[in-house]
Design a protein that fits this description.
4-stranded antiparallel sheet; about 575 residues; Isoleucyl-tRNA Synthetase, Domain 1; 5-stranded parallel sheet; flat; Gyrase A, domain 2; alpha/beta; 15 strands
């Protein structure tokens, strides 16, 4: 109904522009909000207040002109001006029940729109370094990104989901060296393991697989491995210097075989991440390789653009980007003294590549700890001659998992963490996804395992899914009684839905398209979650107050049509969240 009223206002505005009462270049979209007080109608618009300056007339006078140009509509019984210039719409009774027909006609498409008008959006999310399995901290960004993408797609945007694979750089070298050292242990050698290496059991598994497939091919004498290395922590040394020296030793001793050990770790972990996300309902159109980016010359190309613009300089043997010229707190190194490019340099090239692909919007879903990284990336885009406003960075607080009062550690390096796979196995995919998007993404979240696994009304995902299952149960009971719903008869008698609980359900149903649009444009999936919880509450209250399977077949069919519309909307909403809609629980 809201969009229907917007179209009426758009017609009136176009008529006033044609007559010269409004400038033809006025592009404001008419806004419509639900009236807070029933005495002020069902919907209200402040369009006259927004256009008054352009029209060069008082808002109330403009509101009267707009009303005069509104086309007739059988679902609108009265329109009046209120206050400083609000336009209030009063709807006919049939307008409130019309949503039931619309839901039946549109089915799974109800709530979807074309407001995005085919705009191309690239959304990059998760992008965890492939140095270990995904943990519960990654899960929130994974679900948040996938639901934002689904919402945008439901609103007519052309969405490209992307995972940026950090398959180059120092952390991957630490991973490869960790795998190699564990491999040497499989060969029978006893060596001290770096304090800054990756210690998880998954490293031992990769090393075992490597030894099983390659035998002793990558074995080198332990004395050669350890000779001349600096001290490690906690033996009075520097753990960073030690691990870097061990990486250099692995590269020099393995030669060309180093890349094979490197790829063994990368391939195993990346496949594990792919499988994990797929099982979690998170999919991508593209897995974009950082190594491929570097090999293509894109990094050098981006740095070349900055160099030609006079934005790179040499200092202390390193190459720096003058990011302070673009609002950053300090300049940033893009090439280290040893000639290695930094993560930031790769990110500059990656975002330059995104811009060249012609997206209207670029969305990055990052952990909240990356908030300081935003201005430097936007500055780099601006420095490259791009439009930084096309980049939207959505920050996500990591979820914190508790077992009782004890906080579970999340260190990938030490290997002490709860994986996303373990979480999914304990609470289930549906509960995990629902809980991850119950709050605003930038709000702190403690994950309550006990609540997520409970089968009670206190568990919000159970409460919503149970509403869907309960409606399906009503239709099974209908069949058991030997009755059949007369769909058309139910539509013809929707006017009999006059109970207060029915009015509440109808009002909630009519809000669904607005909620989807708002959640998509604001990148706030929690709006949809809150809506589904409210719709489920309205239904459960209705279920407990009014019988559906009654002898009055006209009212019975009208009520069955109403709850079937609730079932459809719950199913549509759960689908956008990536959840199932069970028919029995």
């Amino acid at each position: 109904m809201k969009n229907r009223l917007i179209r009426l206002l758009e017609h009136a505005i176009a008529a006033l522009q044609a007559s010269g009462d409004l400038p033809s270049d006025s592009t404001l979209r008419p806004g419509i909000e639900r009236a807070r007080d029933a005495q002020h109608g069902d919907f209200a618009s402040s369009i006259a207040l927004s256009f008054a300056k352009a029209a060069k007339c008082p808002p109330r006078q403009l509101a009267e002109r707009i009303i005069q140009q509104l086309p007739g509509d059988p679902l609108v019984v009265k329109v009046e001006v209120a206050g400083p210039g609000f336009i209030n719409f009063f709807l006919a009774p049939d307008a409130h029940t019309a949503v039931v027909r619309t839901i039946h006609e549109e089915g799974p498409l109800f709530g979807r729109s074309r407001i995005g008008a085919g705009q191309k959006v690239q959304i990059e999310f998760v992008s965890a370094n492939p140095t270990g399995p995904l943990h519960v901290g990654h899960g929130r960004g994974a679900v948040y990104g996938s639901v934002v993408a689904s919402l945008l797609q439901a609103c007519g945007f052309e969405v490209h989901r992307e995972y940026y694979v950090n398959d180059a750089g120092r952390q991957m070298d630490i991973l490869a060296t960790s795998v190699w050292l564990r491999y040497l242990e499989e060969c029978g050698d006893v060596l001290p393991f770096p304090s800054n290496g990756y210690r998880g059991e998954y490293i031992r598994t990769i090393a075992w697989d490597l030894h099983h497939s390659a035998g002793d091919r990558y074995r080198r004498p332990a004395t050669d491995v350890l000779q001349g290395l600096p001290s490690d922590e906690p033996d009075g040394g520097d753990k960073e210097l030690y691990i870097d020296a061990m990486i250099d030793r692995a590269k020099s001793l393995l030669g060309n075989d180093y890349r094979l050990v490197f790829d063994a770790g990368l391939t195993s972990i990346l496949q594990d991440i792919r499988d994990d996300l797929d099982e979690f309902g998170v999919t991508y159109e593209e897995w974009f390789s950082e190594r491929r980016l570097a090999d293509s010359g894109a990094v050098e190309g981006a740095l070349g653009v900055l160099r030609e613009a006079g934005l790179l300089y040499q200092q202390d043997g390193a190459t720096w980007f003058a990011s302070t010229r673009f609002g950053d707190e300090k300049d940033r190194v893009v090439v280290r003294e040893n000639g290695q490019i930094t993560y930031f340099a790769s990110d500059i090239a990656y975002h330059w590549h995104k811009l060249q692909r012609g997206y209207d919007q670029i969305i990055n879903v990052w952990g909240a700890d990356h908030h300081g990284y935003v201005p430097r990336v936007k500055g780099a885009i601006q420095a490259l001659g791009g439009d930084a406003s096309r980049l939207h960075v959505l920050l996500v607080q990591f979820a914190v998992l508790y077992r009782g009062a004890e906080k579970v550690q999340m260190s990938t390096r030490s290997g002490e963490f709860i994986t996303l796979r373990q979480l999914r196995g304990e609470v289930g995919r549906d509960a995990a996804r629902f809980f991850y998007v119950m709050r605003r993404s930038d709000q702190h979240m403690d994950f309550d395992l006990k609540l997520a696994t409970s089968k009670s009304n206190e568990n919000p995902v159970y409460y919503v899914q149970y509403a869907h299952a309960r409606i399906c149960s009503v239709f099974r009971q209908l069949d058991e009684k030997g009755w059949a719903r007369n769909l058309q008869q139910g539509m013809d008698h929707l006017k009999r839905l006059g109970e207060p609980h029915e009015a509440a359900v109808l009002s909630s149903l009519s809000r669904y398209p607005e909620v989807v649009e708002s959640a998509a444009l604001s990148h706030e999936p929690h709006q949809l979650v809150q809506y589904l919880r409210q719709l489920a509450s309205d239904f459960h209250t209705y279920y407990n107050a009014c019988p559906f399977l009654i002898d009055d077949h006209e009212l019975r069919d009208a009520r069955l049509n109403l709850i079937d519309a609730v079932r459809q909307v719950i199913a549509n909403g759960l689908d956008l969240l990536g959840l199932s809609a069970p028919e029995a629980m």
